[in-house]
Amino acid sequence: MGQSANKRRMNDSEALASARYIRTSPRKLNLVAQMIRGKKAGRALTDLEFCPRRVANEVRKVLQAAIANAENNHGLDVDRLYVAEATVGKTMKMRRFHARARGRAAPVEKFFSNLTVVVREREEKAQ
Fold it and tell me: What does each C-alpha distance from 66 to 24, 50, 71, 92, 126 come to in angstroms?
């Protein structure tokens, strides 16, 4: 009598991977996500590998997970995948303070982000 399975919310030619609570601000993470949007999956992995930003490693892991999901769970062709979406969202922020002179305090906010990467299989061109 269990619950029936939820319908898939994406196309059959798409796969998704996400990471939550990445320890960087959404603004910085979006700069890296913007770099891979619309690129072929292999090219995006190469670009992330040589990107000097610290968060690029986290984005690369999420992209690799999305590619693995596409191949293993949905049976898509890895060579025809491209990054259809790379969305960044805000999540919690840790509030800290720095002690200042004369008994005062200055607030410090440490931001966290969520990242979702959707890869899609390119359709073959009819000739």
Answer: 21, 20, 9, 24, 27
The string of pLDDT tens digits covering residues 75-101 is 999 999 999 999 999 999 999 999 999
Name the fold adopted by 16-121: Ribosomal Protein L22; Chain A (3.90.470)
Give the domain ranges of the chain.
16-121
Distance (Å, rounded) from C-alpha 20 to C-alpha 94? 15
The amino acid present at 62, given as its one-letter code, is V
Whole-angstrom CA distances from 44 to 9, 21, 23, 31, 105 are 25, 22, 22, 14, 43
CA–CA separation, 6 and 24 (whole Å): 33
Helix axes 56-72, 41-49, angle to 10 degrees: 150
Is pTM beyond 0.90 here?
A: no
CA dist 96 and 104 (Å) reads 13
